[in-house]
Specification:
single chain; Neuraminidase; five-stranded mixed sheet; 387 residues; 42% strand; mainly beta
């Protein structure tokens, strides 16, 4: 009978303990985030800017199938706009809680718009103690030279009014047109982003009627938990599906640390427990690399750009940019272009100064890029190639 020497037993025990500890670590280390904040803007612009129309603090652009646009103004107005600058104010728009960052927000065309003329939009609804974010849908109807929102209904409403900003409110539809994704900001109450029972600091996944899909990560738990797709977000003002089906989100950081995140079901992105920025008071926040249980951004910006608006490019006017994404910059006063790889990675490739705060960006069917300025007299600009 062979007896294992004591030293061998010690070696075996060490090996077993080490293996057990390794099993507790993440299966794969996170790829380090890229800080694109210090990258200087391009010295030349490959496009011509053509002003088309002017709005009072516009917020969002959505193209209709016929090439016209819907443009929202934060104070609570919606316009039907042609590419030749003809503007028609819509009637039937609800009252909004217009204060600071709050008001009328995003607008989006339903996947089956050509059949039912349905549009979706978000706004902060007035309450006695502030306002709550709501998601509504209505039919766009035109007659006798006018346009209106008809048969409006609120299909999702946030609980708990707030006077804080950072409402989120960005809408994106799944590529199969069956589901709606909605960003909800932390309303400037950071700790709520980690509360699973509050719809703050979350991305929600809903059916088109506002009900909860049965295959959501926590669908059986009911309430906000059942609607939650991802959590740990601060101030998300950009959400879009890439041509390859991946869902991307950007959000404003605090003092530094704006983020571009690849959104996956059930993931936690860490705010306010981690950030690549610091509190406005100067107090530090632990960095993402100190808490690997939270998903880190693919790109972050310190100094910040204050990202707003996100659109993927699939047009023909700028073929070299196909499958890139464009992000508006409020603090950066310009436009950022991002390229993606097939592994879920991304890099900032271009940054152009436009001289004004850019609130939203959209791509027309002819491939022109459209942006809108965040200003009392904010211009709607069409960007086309230099000749």
């Amino acid at each position: 009978m062979n007896i294992t020497p004591p030293s061998s037993w010690i070696s075996l025990a060490v090996t077993v303990v080490c293996a057990a500890l390794l099993s507790l670590l993440p299966a794969q280390a996170q790829t380090a985030s890229e800080n694109a904040g210090p990258i200087p803007p391009n010295t030349q612009q490959p496009f011509v800017q053509t002003p088309v129309a002017t709005f009072e603090y516009p917020w969002a652009i959505a193209f209709l199938p016929d090439g016209r646009m819907l443009v929202t103004e934060k104070a609570g107005r919606v316009f039907l706009v042609t590419q030749n600058a003809d503007k028609t104010a819509l009637t039937g728009v609800p009252k909004v809680y217009y204060s600071g960052q709050n008001g009328l927000l995003d607008i989006a065309i339903a996947p089956n718009f050509e059949q039912n003329h349905t549009i979706y939009f978000t706004y902060v609804e007035p309450q006695h103690s502030g306002g709550v974010l709501v998601l509504a849908r209505a039919q766009l109807r035109e007659s006798k030279g006018g346009a209106r929102l008809q048969d409006m209904s609120i299909i999702w409403r946030q609980h708990g009014a707030s006077t804080g900003g950072q409402p989120g409110g960005i809408i994106a539809f799944s590529r199969n047109g069956q589901h709606l994704f909605l960003t909800v900001g932390d309303r400037q109450d950071p700790q709520t982003a980690q509360n699973p029972d509050l719809a703050r600091g979350k991305v929600l996944r809903l059916n088109l009627d506002g009900s909860t899909p049965s295959d959501n990560p926590m669908a059986t738990e009911g309430g906000v938990r059942a609607q939650t797709w991802s959590t740990g977000h601060r101030n998300p003002y950009g959400l879009a599906f890439a041509p390859d089906g991946r869902l991307w989100l950007h959000e404003m950081g605090p003092r530094g640390g704006d983020e571009l995140n690849l959104i996956q079901a059930g993931k936690n992105y860490g705010w306010p427990l981690v950030s690549n920025g610091d509190n406005y008071s100067g107090l530090p926040i632990p960095r993402h690399n100190t808490r690997p249980e939270f998903d880190a951004p693919v790109i972050y910006w310190t100094p910040v750009i204050a990202p707003a608006g996100l659109a993927f490019y699939t047009g023909d006017l700028f073929p070299q940019w196909r499958h890139s994404a464009f992000i508006g910059g409020l603090v950066a006063k310009g436009l950022v272009r991002i390229e993606f790889d097939d592994q879920g990675g991304a890099r900032q490739m271009d940054r152009w100064l436009l001289g004004h705060r850019i609130r939203d960006v959209a791509v027309a069917s002819d491939g022109a890029v459209w942006v809108i300025e965040d200003a009392r007299a904010g211009r709607l600009l069409r960007l086309t190639p230099q000749h």
